[in-house]
Amino acid sequence: xxxxxxxxxxxxxxxxxxxxxxxxxxxxxxxxxxxxxxxxxxxxxxxxxxxxxxxxxxxxxxxxxxxxxxxxxxxxxxxxxxxxxxxxxxxxxxxxxxxxxxxxxxxxxxxxxxxxxxxxxxxxxxxxxxxxxxxxxxxxxxxxxxxxxxxxxxxxxxxxxxxxxxxxxxxxxxxxxxxxxxxxxxxxxxxxxxxxxxxxxxxxxxxxxxxxxxxxxxxxxxxxxxxxxxxxxxxxxxxxxxxxxxxxxxxxxxxxxxxxxxxxxxxxxxxxxxxxxxxxxxxxxxxxxxxxxxxxxxxxxxxxxxxxxxxxxxxxxxxxxxxxxxxxxxxxxxxxxxxxxxxxxxxxxxxxxxxxxxxxxx
Amino acid sequence: xxxxxxxxxxxxxxxxxxxxxxxxxxxxxxxxxxxxxxxxxxxxxxxxxxxxxxxxxxxxxxxxxxxxxxxxxxxxxxxxxxxxxxxxxxxxxxxxxxxxxxxxxxxxxxxxxxxxxxxxxxxxxxxxxxxxxxxxxxxxxxxxxxxxxxxxxxxxxxxxxxxxxxxxxxxxxxxxxxxxxxxxxxxxxxxxxxxxxxxxxxxxxxxxxxxxxxxxxxxxxxxxxxxxxxxxxxxxxxxxxxxxxxxxxxxxxxxxxxxxxxxxxxxxxxxxxxxxxxx
Lengths: 362, 279
Hints:
The complex is a heterodimer.
Chain A: E1 6-15, E2 18-28, E3 33-37, H1 44-52, E4 59-64, E5 67-68, E6 80-82, H2 94-104, H3 109-122, H4 138-150, E7 156-160, H5 168-185, E8 188-193, H6 196-202, E9 205-210, E10 213-218, H7 220-225, H8 230-235, E11 240-250, E12 253-257, E13 263-270, E14 278-283, E15 288-291, E16 300-310, E17 314-321, E18 326-332, E19 346-351, E20 356-360
Parallel strand pairs in A: 3-8, 3-9, 6-7, 7-8, 13-20
Antiparallel strand pairs in A: 1-2, 1-4, 4-5, 9-10, 11-12, 11-14, 12-13, 14-20, 15-19, 16-17, 16-19, 17-18
Helix pairs in contact in A: 2-3, 2-4, 3-4
Chain B: H1 2-41, H2 48-55, H3 57-90, H4 93-108, H5 111-122, H6 127-134, H7 148-172, H8 176-184, H9 189-217, H10 221-227, H11 234-244, H12 248-278
Helix pairs in contact in B: 1-12, 3-4, 3-7, 3-9, 5-10, 7-9, 7-10, 8-9, 9-12, 11-12
Keywords (chain A): ATP-binding, Nucleotide-binding, Transport
Organism (chain A): Gemmobacter aquatilis
GO molecular function, one term (chain A): ATP hydrolysis activity
């Protein structure tokens, strides 16, 4: 195997008895947009801070182009970073903020002026050189921070939830900008977020963090179509989980039995499982249908309608299985059933084969 | 209607301030005016007191001593207080509050007691001289009292809290992430200090330095106990003129000059920082 561009090699970080990150292993190629996605406290920021040199790992190594960077202090790592909080130097103008990394590198005056101009053009803030940071919006400040982090052409750019302080509309606007900047510069980006939509929108690949460990790494479609664990399945997408137990396992297909004895069969099973273990049936919402007729034996479940909510482009139907699990099915606008449903109606939930997954619980 | 409310509020605010304004007028403005009057009327009408103050080399020496010592004290205080304030700001809060309490406690201890303590430490056979000699660093005791060295040491000690407090205020407000950003941008510790930390702490340094400098200009107890009569400072001159020589005219003139210098410095600082804010 060739040497990866950036290799996070078995990083472990503990604070006393608390394990913040546990054997994080990841190879990132040059120019890749890699996102660390996970809930807060899952170890994604810790891993990023170790890359930045703000913290030392308890064990493991980080190699850039095959060379360990752990013994290099932050200011010599030549890594760019955009922080969650606004970290522009408040006493310096926008131009001087962007020039700062070049000034501490003692670059020539004309070269600095040219690079600053180019970096500000990249984030579409041409002509803002003399503005003070306090006079700018949050979105503009983060764009200046991006220009400051890119002006010295770092091989790796770290972004630690840079958009979390912004409102939704502005966030989406800057996400588009970040994508464009990534394409234009070809810089390798490591991006931390807890927002699955942001991760899917931006990344080439996503590493899902949970309790200090990486649960799965893959492209958005890979993770969505083939989640390795219950956690990944739950974290990406908006799926229904119905709880039962494994009634039979054949290779990687399983049959599940629910509390009232109803059974479903031929469901892809993720991870190892034995008969009798508690397991969940996961149904992706877009491949699930409500129908008046039952499907083939073991490929549909009867439900009772609890509530109907019209949402414009779709109607959300809250339904309950016969053993009491709740799930929501969306009917697109114009669906033949949409106008004719009432609470208490008995219907059948059916799914296409790719939409159902079985996960052992635990 | 709205403006009527605010106007009413402003009026009542003035009402609340009235006792304080009267108090200041009666006990500050009037005595200063009286002193100013005496400085141009005693022993006879005219500016002869000021002419003597400005013209004589003895008094020039006293003015020089005062400004020189105050300047050195301010400089040393800034240099010591900055790292202390920085350490206090980043220290775990439990430790910071203990050290903070020690600093405050020293401020609340009687000034005379603290100055006498320094006399004991600094004298020829004092702890400092004996320790240095025991360590073999010096052969003969250093002259640390009855000169400006002693005055400077004692005053730095007394002024330190007045510098640490405002500095801590500004340093605590600096987001540590800004310094992390500076480090990732490639700034060494020294560059981050010079280009980020000190400029951001600037207002705190300026207000602390002004306070220490102005307080030092008018300080009496420490210079008179540690400096001796040969190294007089302005406050001692005023005391001598008024108490020993009963020369109110001369004392008043010196006091008034001190007040003018102090107000001038304050005006410079206000102007400097207002201009910065407005930008």
